[in-house]
Specification:
Shape: globular
Number of helices: 10
Structural class: alpha/beta
Largest sheet: 7 strands, parallel
Helix content: 40-55%
Number of domains: 1
Strand order of the largest sheet: 3-4-5-8-9-10-11
Bound molecules: NADP nicotinamide-adenine-dinucleotide phosphate
Strand content: 5-15%
Order of helices and strands: EEEHEHEEEHEHEHEHEHHHH
Length: 300
């Protein structure tokens, strides 16, 4: 079944007049292997970004610690001066070690430097959305975010940041954050096989806050499931299209940012917006997370 809504329709960011297409693009895959250094094919990376914009995408997710610096520099090279209406969402709160590790960068100086690195490498005077990234690699951990978020709110007042978001947070951290500044989006790990945030997605939908899953296709090792393959065959789509269509149908506040370094994969992914999954396909896909959950419990 197909539907004709462009790029999954739009979602208006809470408290703003900004409407983003629900099918966006995540730029992390544009850096070199392990998100480090330049890609093998810079022209190919530029072509992916230009193709996304040509298709109407108006939401690109990035960070200056991808590369580091490389991904933002490629975005600038490909798209600057930016088309009207393009929203570039970035994040601060992490940095890369010389050994390619991912480290926290939540001190006052690191956060200020992170915002300035993004401004410089993207070539803008203000950043559309900055997500404060906290917690572990894949999962949030409880703890106050007051200090770093208060600083981000200060940078917002200074006009360097237009809107604040949070990444890798718990519902309690969101509540704390909302007492400090308006939060327009939450970016956490979520996909059809990893659904720890189910209740959080629904709670954010009630508040009109965008939920932007990272690793929507499974991340560095994309989703693999015979059930996903079976559903994909039954609806004549690719497994990655089904994974994205499932997210778009899961809740109207979900904005997707699938990452790819390939124009063909980008086209495939954008095509997911036209796919309408029938109820029996949704039921089969919902069962995948149950199987994954049961398997992880049995190994604990
Ligand atoms: N806030 C955070 O902590 C955080 C963490 C991770 C990521 N992110 C953001 O989330 C975005 C998405 O995450 P992600 O890129 O890591 O993972 P993802 O979108 O789940 O998956 C990317 C992987 O899927 C492959 N892929 C993409 N489209 C495909 C297709 N149609 N068919 C087959 N394979 C396909 C990509 O390889 P190819 O390049 O070969 O297509 C890549 O290996 C990132 O770009 C980044 O902006 C945020």
């Amino acid at each position: 079944m197909t539907k004709s809504t462009k790029l999954g329709g739009t979602f208006t960011l809470h408290g703003t007049s900004t409407s983003l297409y629900r099918m966006g693009y995540g730029a992390m895959q544009l850096a070199g292997p392990e998100v480090w250094g330049p890609p093998r094919d810079v022209d190919g990376a530029i072509a992916v970004l230009q193709e996304a914009i040509a298709a109407g995408v108006n939401h690109i997710d990035t960070s200056d610690y991808y590369g580091p610096h490389v991904t933002n520099q490629i975005i600038k090279k490909a798209l600057h001066p930016y088309p009207a209406g393009l929203f570039i969402v970035t994040k601060v709160g992490a940095r890369r070690g010389e050994d390619k590790s991912w480290l926290h960068a939540l001190s006052r100086k690191e956060l200020v430097d992170g915002v300035h690195d993004n401004l410089r490498n993207l070539g803008v005077d203000a950043l559309d959305v900055v997500n404060l990234r906290v917690g572990g690699m894949m999962a949030p951990s409880e703890g106050s975010i007051e200090e770093p978020l208060t600083l981000l709110a200060e940078l917002k007042r200074q006009g360097l940041v237009r809107h604040a978001g949070l990444s890798n947070v718990t519902p309690r951290q969101l509540q704390e954050g909302q007492r400090i500044t308006e939060i327009v989006s939450v970016q956490n790990f979520y996909n059809l096989a990893h659904r720890n945030d189910d209740a959080f997605v629904d709670a954010l939908a009630k508040q009109g806050i965008a939920y932007v899953p990272f690793f929507p296709l499974g991340g560095f090792t994309p989703l693999q499931s015979s059930e996903l393959d079976r559903v994909a065959a039954s609806v004549e789509a690719t497994p990655m299209q089904v994974a994205l269509a499932w997210l778009l149908q899961r809740s109207p506040n979900i904005l997707t940012i699938p990452g790819t370094s390939s124009v063909n994969h980008l086209r495939d992914n954008l095509g997911a917006a036209a796919l309408e999954l029938p109820p029996d396909a949704i039921a089969a896909l919902n069962a995948i997370a149950e199987t994954v959950r049961a398997a992880s419990q049995s190994t604990q």
